[in-house]
Amino acid sequence: MNKKLLGVLLLLVAPILLVAQQSITPDALTRIKKGYSNSDPYAKAVTNALSANDAKKLTLNRENVGKTDSYFKYKVKVKGITDQKSSGRCWMFTSLNLFRPVVIDKLKVASFEFSENYLYFYDILEKSNLFLENAIITADKPMDDRLVELYFKSPIDDGGVWSSFVNLVKKYGVVPKEVMPETNSSSNTSKVLAAITTKLREDGLALRRMVETKSSIADIRNLKMEQLSQIYRMLALNLGEPPTSFTWRYQSTDNVISPKVTYTPREFAKQMLPNLNLEDYVMFMNDPSRPYYKLYEIENYRNVVEGINWKYLNLPADELKAMALISIKSNEPLYTSCDVGKQLNSEDGLLSLNNYDMESLYGVKFGMDKKDRILSRESGSSHGMALVAVDVDDNGKTVKWQFENSWGATSGQSGYLVFTDDWFTEYVFRLVVNKKYIPENTKKLLEQKPVMLPAWDPMF
């Protein structure tokens, strides 16, 4: 055979040989079994311990217990802890919690809370509308198209980000919690979400079929409005009907009862937060799997059809910390999201890289950095909280931080979580900062055209 031809054939075959799947043969199993020996006293002891105990308790690093105090040099004024209960509304609670202290100071009241249930109602209604619109727009694509699969896999959910909050407040305003209090369904969202999801999938298929049969745009839109009317009914039955106007009064800490005033939700937002301009806030991300100093946008990631998509500037963690420090020193909390489940000692309310030592227990090395954890889907943002405090050493270097959580006052440290500066680097992903605390050179980066990321991006 011609040597050149043989060389070409070898090059063609080589990749196939490299990717050929390997089964576990008896010989291979013998080699694999060397990783564990029941004659090893340590292995026997750990087997006995793990088979009868919670692995998390066994990996708790006792050397780290009690090493981190809960004192902070800088802390914003906060008052009271909220509770999202069994729902995924952390982003909504966190966003509203940023502005509760403003209202408390303005009205001179002992406590105040916005109605999360009110915004939740419209969040699900708007997400339902967006799904139905997406079903119409993608009706020419097959059901196994990646985008269609994504939409029908999860027509709605109760998750969200800062931009979701912005879209809702600008359109619907806010109301006090007393005006539209929590219900069992708003505090335990799985059942109402499941029912609406089932209905939306049915409705989405019906709209697709109308497009396929060349129905008129008017008929398609009429059907969609009937479908949304049914979703509204389901929401109202579970959550109560949101007010278009309401009459409200309050009692100050001086025991003075205010006059009754009638507001629309948007009027109430303007009255209580007159200096709030939601366009002044910018979302930043620390994602080392992508180039820094680039602006990114997630395609079609929003809750309101006419609203803004999720958009962020990717920066190194140290630059996020610098802006957070300035904001907290200026008495302004920040919307933050993180991978809260990683290295969380819930009993002590502490997030630290040294909390749990799996390597010593299992005798196995765990070595992924933040970039690799993102790429392998091991880590990503799972929870939003308000960043309210920071401690620094004698040189002004940040050493630890504090979250105001929304899991109730009995969780963590009376509702708060302390986390080390190293944990911030590894597991904090997003931060929303007021423009007045953003350096000028960073502001200029916001002028660039965003890199559009697909809706199915693994980080989102």
Automatic annotation (TrEMBL):
GO CC terms in record: cytoplasm
One GO molecular-function entry: cysteine-type aminopeptidase activity
Transmembrane segments: none
PROSITE patterns per UniProt: THIOL_PROTEASE_CYS
Domain of life of the source: Bacteria
BP term (GO), one: proteolysis
Cleavable signal peptide: 1-20
UniProt-annotated catalytic positions: C90, H383, N405
Pfam family, one: Peptidase_C1_2
The entry's keywords: Aminopeptidase, Hydrolase, Protease, Signal, Thiol protease
PANTHER family xrefs: BLEOMYCIN HYDROLASE
Family as reported in the entry's similarity comment: Belongs to the peptidase C1 family.
Protein name: Aminopeptidase
